[in-house]
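Researcher: Next sequence.
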Amino acid sequence: MSYELKVKNDSGLTLIELLIAMAIGLVVLGSIFSSFTSQKKAFALQEQVTDMEQNLRIPMDFITRDLRSTGYNPTEILVAGTSVGLIPGGTRSINITTNQLRILADLTGDGGTGDSGEEVDYSLDGTAYTDGFTYDIYRNGQPLVENVTALTFTYYDSAGNTIATPVTGSNLANIRLVQISLTARTTKEDANFTSGVNISGTTDDGTCRTRTLTARVRTRNIGLK
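Model: Next structure:
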């Protein structure tokens, strides 16, 4: 008896088929990489936006809290001309202007404002760094946050009329409402955004995104007898 061994001839991929498979694979990998890159950029941008919004909330919380205490004076024996709580001038030359404010409150009720936290001032200052301008809000001469590009105070009397700045003399006692407006920017520029703050000297690489936060605080202690 004889046996005949038959071997099936299985053919592999041709060169053309291999090239087509590789091309499809490269297209798929390119799409995945492009999606990953876009998501990474979006995440980095959102992280900057979150930091920027935090840079707005922190000083706003500080300023509104201090303004609600301004003029607190249970003994009514503060230094003449300063008992209203908002005063011009001082050791750091902080005036009651559109971007500077000085606050007094006798929080301990001892008839003076020499205790901690009873005399507070705010101002905006820009300091140049290698990556552009980093703006700081200062509280009592110490930087509170960075990258805030605008700080504006607007003052109103009991009738809702705007009080001109710098506020001096009898107008200090007429303040009943203070509006605070803060504008912050992202740390870096966004190549796809060209209508914000420019820190590199050219808008070809985009500009920084910005946010503005506004709040109104009633000076509830000013005007009380």
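Model: The first strand starts at residue 100 and ends at 104. The chain has a mean pLDDT of 81.
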